């Protein structure tokens, strides 16, 4: 019975340490993200983010119909 009590107490202590560490890291990452977002907004004015950044980079399907027609016209035959 003593071993079970010590084991459960140890697990609880480890859980609390991990929970505290996650809270500290999460708080700092949110703080940095908030500062970066406010600095980014100040630098870019009030521009909206792109609708589909992966499609704009060409790594995901979903471009506009005009993009497909332009790519066919530029390729030599």
Give structural attributes.
77 residues, mainly alpha, 3 helices, 0% strand, elongated
Structural features, described:
The protein is an all-alpha fold and 77 residues long. It has one domain (2-74). The protein has helices at 2-44, 53-57, 65-74. The radius of gyration is 26 Å and the shape is elongated. The termini are far apart. The model has no long low-confidence stretch (mean pLDDT 74).
Low-confidence stretches: none
Question: How does the major sheet shape up?
Answer: none
Following the backbone from N to C, one meets helices and strands in this order, namely HHH
Helix content: over 70%
Count every beta strand, where a strand is a DSSP E run of 2 or more residues. 0
Secondary structure: elements and pairs:
Elements: H1 2-44, H2 53-57, H3 65-74
Summarize the structure.
The protein has three helices and no strands.
